[in-house]
Input
Amino acid sequence: MSASREKKQRQNDPNQGLSQKQRKELEEQKAAKHKAILYTVIGIVVAALVVVLLVWHSGFFQSRTTAVSVGGRDYSPADVEYYYRSLVQYEYYQTYAFDPQSDLRTQYVDANQTQSYHDKFLQTTLETLTEVAAVENAAEAEGFTLTQEELDHVAASVNTMKENASSNGYTYATYLKAVFGPYMTPSRYETCMKRAALVNSYTTKISDSFAVSDEEIQTYYEAHAAELDSYDYRYLFISGTAPSGTDSEGNTVEATEEEKAAALAAAKVKADELVSKVSAADDRSAAFAELAPDYVAESSRASYESDPDYSLRTGTSGSSLSSYSTYGSWLTDADRKAGDVEVIEGSGGYYVVLFLDRYLDETPTADIRHILIKAELTQEDDAATSDVDESAVPTQEALDAAKAEAEDLLAQWESGERTAESFGALAEAHSDDTGSNTNGGLYEAVYDGQMFAGFNDWIFNDEHTQGDTGLIENTQSGQQGWHVIYFQSWNDPKWTISVRNTLLNDQLTAWVNGLTEGLEVVEGSGLSYVGRAGLPDQPT
Output
């Protein structure tokens, strides 16, 4: 090394002049400082990671990812889960075919396990969202918005959800997550509610613009008469099942194939015998009723003996009969005549069916308003009374109080304007019927047999005119109390309304299909967060 370079190095050496011990101490200080810096950096990274994980498990990132895009609209996992979980809950209470608290990915629609319930519900949800997006776009293009009244209704629904949460001991946010999934938040829920209200309101507006002519209704009827007509008939079932036996040790012994065949053949002989006797009678319906007790199972004989019309079915719609694969098609055959009687094989035996009549039921439906005053339940259940839940049975005093309130409301109406509107105002203020107390107590197109017996009899046993009123007691479990009924008007027959609704729905479906045509569903990363497990235990 040159002298000048060595001199320069010495000048640049900050440790120049230090002893070996001093140099060692200095190096140790540097190493400790570097170590401290390193630990600080690691601490910052770990802390950041903890925050990220906490945020991740809170659903913050997931809720802000896009689950699906349709028609230029992005929907988050919470948006999709809103429809997904609503569908799951609806299907569960309709079928009870799966366990909503368990992972739906491991539960299958079919025995061959070709489709999980999760896949089924997700597919339907995406189809629903496609329609939602299409209607949203159409409403936006028209400048359609919710009215203040509709916004108020959304707010009321949100408040109801808050009350449900509170009454069940949950915070509002926790309750929403329990019902609609881990990514649902109060603000997101309100958005979902407003979206649903907008779609419903705009769809209703469009639907109200559709019309169906009398000619279209008649044309539809002629093409579907077998389904729309009503049928009167008698029937009974003659079992051909061979009973099981027991061996010497008391074990159950199933019938042999020979015994099963013999029992089925014997049932056929009995069925043919009944048909022969009924066919020979002048009044086949009366003969069927008289002979029936001798041909049914011993356990059913008393019912047929005590009630001659136990075998009688009247006013059965053809659409209902279509689900009876055994004798439904025979009854609805266009060539069927009154008095036709037939033996029809069923599962484990034979039906004997007597055709009585086929007709188009022109009984009008009715538009009515009502106020339900339920009797208060103040009793505590008596544990010693195991067969009766006394807490669900109002006292006579409570029933009398309900009647007095109903009478008072009727008197208020009679002393006022005596209009449908004034009755509706009383219904909204006082009725305990949650199905009608937000629309003036109105039920439209009520058909014969739809309501409980007393209510139904009041409507259809008298020739009412607009403004007729009545007081009816409700003795049904959970509904005990009194009704104030207002007769508003007669309406079209049930079949006419059914056909009109079918044709209007066809028009609406065509409109929606037109909107969704060409719309592409683009799945985003957030879709994987939807329905990851079954529904949690839900607060009620």
User: Anything to note?
Assistant: Confidence is low (pLDDT under 50) at residues 1-18, 48-62.
